């Protein structure tokens, strides 16, 4: 066994592929050859990721780079699920993109991170059809977003670098022959997509625009919406809509490459370091899993800001997500919570800034309150250890983090008399609708939330509730807007509340 492990480790040390004939030959880290290689790959700032990278990166880079790319892809999917427009999506995702996955840069490490992270996620998402479809959809969204962020000069440069045979422009004679039909087809798009409201502006733009002629099935999504002119089985695509063609080509190529990756996946089974990482990344991930906070959520809370008394205040409770409100209401009704409920609420309160001493005071008062049947002696004997253990003061001394949505959804559904779990999953339609109506949501908003619940998109439903109850005014766009953690909901709600109250006070003066 020792010899087998030694042989396996030895084979990992070098990834040179002398017989492959690949042009991807890496020198030492940061070498001139490596820099020239990536300068060539990203000459036009974008890539179709045609050839796999070769070289060595650390396991930390392998995981962190993949996680950072996942955050961007998850936020993109969340924006689409919440029906954000292209402009809103760009506003939300751009700060996250610049922070985690910058692409319009000359930095070698940024280029390597983008290239490697794409291929690492190919390994994660090639295993099943559902995962492949999910990855293709998300990567295509990212490609479209990045293309639109490029200047027209780099867009043209990128298209030329692809050398696609389908991107053949018609002659000026053919454009003149169908000029009337072509203009009538694209005029509405020039007005509403490019904001050219003046007729003279639209005609001037048309005079300079080039058209691509290709089989209509290549742009079938544009045919149904009458955005292209059809003639004898060919579609005439204006150059400003070439992104539809490019994204389709990108997704088709990626689908093929994912299948090839899947076929070669068994070769990875020998490497016991990578399989756990890949499995973890591809199953059940959420944005919140990878937040790198210095400590738990509640980083904005000052020490003593939340205590066993003011946690009952209307101001604090208004920031609770629905799952935490449900637990809180259950605790007040029953003067007790069963194990999963105690753990979920205990970790949540810890995450928002309730100290260990204040937590013990809170739970003792809640369990022994008037109307209940528990004495202080029984609380100290049966429950005190549990709450101290949650704060790392007993047992193995581990300071546990608050449960994220993935963890909550992995627990058993609540039985009668239990209040843990996710209301968007566990409540029936009537109960959830009644609760949403109490939040003063409109019928359209409620239907949208219920539709997400039916699709099992519970974090999307929670994010929609947050946006509809807090509005967009004064909300900051930072790392991500998708909410996949109850404490992230609380933190954002508290920030919005403080800013909103501050603005109201300023207006009063």
Key traits:
single chain; 509 residues; mainly alpha; Transcription Elongation Factor S-II, Chain A; 3 domains; three-stranded antiparallel sheet; 3 strands; 59% helix; disordered N terminus; DNA_primase_lsu_euk/arc; metal ion binding
Q: What does this molecule look like?
A:
With 509 residues, this protein is mostly helical. Residues 1-29, 284-303 and 473-478 have low confidence and may be disordered. The chain has three domains: 22-161 and 250-285, Up-down Bundle (Transcription Elongation Factor S-II, Chain A); 165-242, no CATH class; 310-508, no CATH class. The relative contact order is 0.08. It has helices at residues 2-12, 32-41, 59-81, 86-100, 108-125, 129-149, 152-162, 172-177, 179-192, 199-208, 220-224, 242-264, 274-282, 314-317, 322-334, 339-351, 356-367, 376-382, 384-390, 405-410, 423-426, 429-438, 443-454, 458-470, 486-508; strands at 211-215, 229-231, 234-238. The longest helix is centred in the N-terminal third of the chain and has 23 residues, at 59-81. The chain is globular. The termini are far apart. Residues 1-24 are annotated as: Disordered. Belongs to the eukaryotic-type primase large subunit family.
């Amino acid at each position: 066994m020792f010899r087998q492990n030694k042989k396996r480790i030895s084979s990992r040390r070098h990834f040179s592929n002398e017989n492959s004939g690949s042009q991807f030959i890496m020198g030492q880290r940061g070498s001139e050859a490596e820099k020239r290689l990536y300068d060539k790959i990203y000459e036009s700032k974008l890539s179709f990721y045609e050839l796999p990278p070769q070289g060595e990166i650390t396991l930390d880079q392998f995981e962190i780079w993949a996680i950072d790319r996942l955050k961007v892809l998850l936020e993109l999917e969340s924006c689409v699920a919440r029906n954000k427009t292209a402009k809103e999506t760009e506003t939300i995702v751009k700060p996250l993109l610049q922070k985690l996955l910058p692409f319009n840069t000359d930095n070698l490490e940024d280029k390597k991170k983008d290239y490697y992270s794409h291929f690492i996620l190919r390994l994660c998402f090639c295993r099943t059809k559902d995962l492949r479809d999910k990855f293709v959809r998300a990567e295509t969204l990212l490609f479209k977003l990045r293309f639109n962020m490029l200047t027209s000069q780099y867009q043209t440069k990128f298209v030329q670098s692809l050398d696609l045979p389908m991107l053949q422009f018609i002659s000026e004679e053919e454009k003149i022959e169908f000029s009337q039909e072509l203009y009538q087809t694209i005029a509405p798009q020039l007005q509403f997509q490019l904001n050219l409201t003046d007729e003279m502006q639209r005609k001037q733009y048309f005079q300079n625009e080039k058209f691509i002629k290709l089989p209509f099935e290549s742009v079938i999504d544009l045919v149904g919406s009458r955005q292209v002119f059809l003639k004898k089985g060919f579609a005439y695509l204006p150059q400003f809509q070439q992104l539809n063609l490019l994204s389709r080509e990108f997704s088709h190529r990626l689908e093929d490459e994912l299948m090839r990756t899947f076929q070669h996946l068994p070769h990875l089974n020998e490497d016991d370091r990578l399989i756990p990482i890949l499995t973890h990344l591809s199953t059940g991930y959420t944005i919140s899993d990878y937040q790198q906070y210095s400590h738990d959520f509640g980083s904005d809370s000052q020490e003593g800001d939340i205590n066993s008394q003011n946690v009952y205040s209307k101001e604090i409770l208004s920031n609770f997500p629905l799952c935490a409100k449900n637990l809180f209401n259950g605790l007040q009704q029953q003067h007790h919570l069963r194990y999963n409920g105690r753990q979920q609420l205990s970790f949540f309160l810890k995450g928002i800034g309730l100290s260990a001493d204040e937590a013990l005071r809170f739970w003792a008062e809640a369990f022994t309150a008037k109307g209940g049947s528990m004495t202080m002696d029984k609380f100290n004997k049966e429950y005190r250890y549990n709450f101290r253990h949650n704060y790392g003061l007993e047992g193995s001394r581990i300071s546990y983090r608050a449960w994220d949505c993935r963890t909550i959804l992995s627990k058993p559904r609540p039985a009668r008399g239990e209040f843990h779990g996710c209301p968007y999953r566990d409540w029936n339609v009537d109960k959830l609708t009644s609760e949403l109506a109490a939040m003063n949501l409109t019928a359209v908003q409620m239907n949208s939330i219920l539709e997400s619940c039916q699709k099992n998109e519970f974090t999307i439903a929670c994010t929609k509730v947050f946006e509809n109850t807090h509005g967009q005014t004064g909300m900051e766009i930072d790392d991500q807007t998708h909410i996949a953690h109850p404490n992230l909901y609380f933190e954002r709600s508290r920030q919005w509340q403080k800013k909103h109250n501050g603005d109201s006070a300023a207006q009063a003066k």
